[in-house]
What does this fold into?
Amino acid sequence: MKKLEQIYEGKAKKVYLTDNPDYVIVDYKDDATAFNGVKKGTIIGKGIVNNKVSNHFFKLLEAEGIPTHYVEEISDRETIVKKVEIVPVEVIVRNKAAGSFTKRMGVPEGSELLCTILEYSYKKDELGDPFINSYYVKALGLATDEEMAKIDEYALKVNDFLSAYLKTLGVELIDYKLEFGRFKGEIILADEISPDTCRFWDLDTGKKLDKDRFRQDLGEVEEAYQEIIKRLMGA
Ligand code: UDP
It folds into this structure.
């Protein structure tokens, strides 16, 4: 497949057209941002880890019956994915309290939750991705009720599978963000699932193995990304 012109450059990825109109190529960068772009830096090797980790998860999730945008990994940093129309609703799944939830609700990090939480934010950088609910989604025409029912169903299925799978590797899945897209009329899982978009804690020690090491200046940032790829793929 031919890589054609770049159509998008985001904070962590570039996207290119291909000679197949149904497919694009994503190219993962080492650039890191946090707090809606206020904190900037580089995490060496991050692009490779995120590309490979995300593809690994997406292949497993496809086998579990969750449709994804994944097509084929073509290099350490590049993957062919289906060209979707992104639903502008970020879905956050929380298994334990962390991040913005602890601040908003005034509970300590790591607090147990009595059930898994599904939360939405409006994908709009200029507004700082504000918190929304299902009425906002409907009222603003961001997605239909039918689409949101599918999105919730897939998000919870992803959670059941990934939480159990990661536990076998000694990793606790604390929370994460998912994005979905429309492809030929269907809702499919898109974007990435990686240490940039998840909170992973070591099951035994509670050590953070994700982007919080960068956000909070905890050190050993590169090492944490490498630890995750090692646990998942044994590299
Ligand atoms: N998250 C993300 N992109 C965003 C916002 C959140 O990938 O734009 C992920 C984040 O890494 C964490 C989870 O979603 O795993 C929940 O994030 P939270 O709402 O607590 O916000 P944060 O503390 O990351 O600002």
Summary: The chain has a mean pLDDT of 98. The pocket of uridine-5'-diphosphate is lined by residues 92, 98-101, 129, 175-177, 197-199, 211 (CB under 6 Å).
